Amino acid sequence: MHPNTIFPEPVFITRLIHIDPQFAEDFRGQKSFLVTANFFTDNKYRRLAQMAREGCDILIVNPVTNFFTYSGYVEKPTYSNLPYAPELPFSRTKLKEIHRTNFIDQVVAWQVNHGAGLLIAPYFYARDLDDRKYDYNLNLLEETICYKDKYGKQVWACINMGIKSLFNENLNEVIDNYCKTEADGFFILLEGFEDRSATTSNIITLLTLVEELSRKKDVIVGSIGPFGQILFAYGANGFSSGIGWMETFRESQLEGGEVGYAADRVPRAQYYYISSIFSYVKPYDLATLMNPNMSPEDLINELKCDCVICEEGYPKKPMDKKRHFLHKRFEEMRTLRELLKELDFDDMDTRKNTLHEIMMNKLLKARFLAQRIQDEVFIDINIAGINNWIEALKKYPPSSF
Ligand SMILES: [Zn+2]
Predict the structure, then answer these.
(1) Residue 375 CB coordination number (10 Å)
(2) 312 CA → ligand 1 middle, Å
(3) What confidence category does residue 257 fall into, taking pLDDT thresholds of 50, 70 and 90?
(4) How far is the CA of 334 from the centre of ligand 1 (A)?
(5) Which pLDDT band holds residue 345 (cuts at 50, 70, 90)?
(6) 315 C-alpha to center of ligand 1: Å?
């Protein structure tokens, strides 16, 4: 986060898909929404496009160019209909020269024409630094930066890499290379990083990346679950995911065979988000957990939600579970924003250290609650995952070097 940031307050950026226009409408007035570029290729998603645009200040249109080195997008018309989609996946020869073609022009224009508030430079998924796409990405970014003045919009880099490749000097090299650019912000999308099961060392990698990049520019971390909020203590401006799902980026998503899944068919849509334990519970477990005959009253009180949806009993329908999720997530952000306003820091380091303490306390409380849930009603709530974050925060406090 830097002095001229366009995201001065902690923000959760909801990634909206075709089944979500109602949420964009119900929760309008957000700082930012994210929609992938493919949803603007088909008129049947015009309501999503309109609601997303009207519902926020800064719409992010992810250009999803990373799909175009895999053949999967060919089966998905919304992707293959993008004006910059190649007929066949890009070969290495094509990619090498791509920054000299009109590819960037088209990718940028598509975002602008659909109401994007900032521009994301075209990017490809690079497994590691030896992946040639890593260098192509930096070339593409440099060229895209020239569009800042033309459209009067910020240009952001999407760092879409494998988490496993980022350690020691590799991590430093990525940080150095991206900090050297004139990008206005960084959107981090790490392959295989699942916040609830990430190892301590992978968490430290992410914390380092966020903290070092945020010294220069704005940072938003994409496709991350509830633990994403901890990144505010390391200078992140925001984090993003779908509504209670799509919380991890995997390379397999770029491949074929994943079309047309409706939210109510995805088991995840049946889960209920409990923010105080950084987790979701299954419907059957929720019933047990909230049953006064099975669970101690003080534990129920600690876990229960007072949002407008849960007021009338725990939601049964996926739509209502998603509404509850958004109410809770936005409430988490509001609480943080109000707290930061109250404390009104002069410098970044004090702000980060205070947030670090807040997040550590949240984690310790979550572990305590998860342990109680396990002891009282024998439901397993990801204690190991919480512990890994606690460990990472202990080993790598912000501004530690
Ligand atoms: Zn609720």
Answers:
(1) 9
(2) 10
(3) low
(4) 15
(5) confident
(6) 8
By the CB criterion, residues less than 5 angstroms from ion ligand 1 are 305, 307, 309-310, 324
The closest alpha carbon to 230, from 251, 249, 212, 203, belongs to 203
pLDDT in tens, 142-190: 999 999 999 999 999 999 999 999 988 999 999 999 999 999 999 999 9
d(CA 290, CA 285) in angstroms, rounded, equals: 9
321 CA distance to ligand 1 centroid (A)? 8
Let me know: does 120 contact 158? Beta carbons within 8 Å: yes
Predicted model pTM: 0.96
Report the alpha-carbon distance of residue 11 to residue 122 in Å, rounded.
Answer: 24
Q: Has residue 267 got a pLDDT over 90?
A: no
Which residues in 74-105 are b (16+ Cβ under 10 Å) and which e?
bebebbbebebbbeebbeeeebeebbeeebbe
pLDDT classification of 255: cutoffs 50, 70, 90: confident
The token pair at 65 is 């160019």
Q: Is the CATH code 3.20.20.105 the one for domain 11-254?
A: yes
CB contact set of 277 (below 8 Å; sequence gap of 6+): 303, 366, 369, 370, 373, 381, 382, 386
Secondary structure letter of residue 146 according to DSSP: T
Nearest to residue 277, comparing CAs of 391, 397, 380? 380
| Cβ(189)–Cβ(222) below 8 Å | yes
Contacts of 46 (CB under 8 A, 6+ apart): none
Domain residue extents for the chain: 11-254, 267-395
Tell whether the model's pLDDT for residue 288 goes beyond 70. Answer: yes
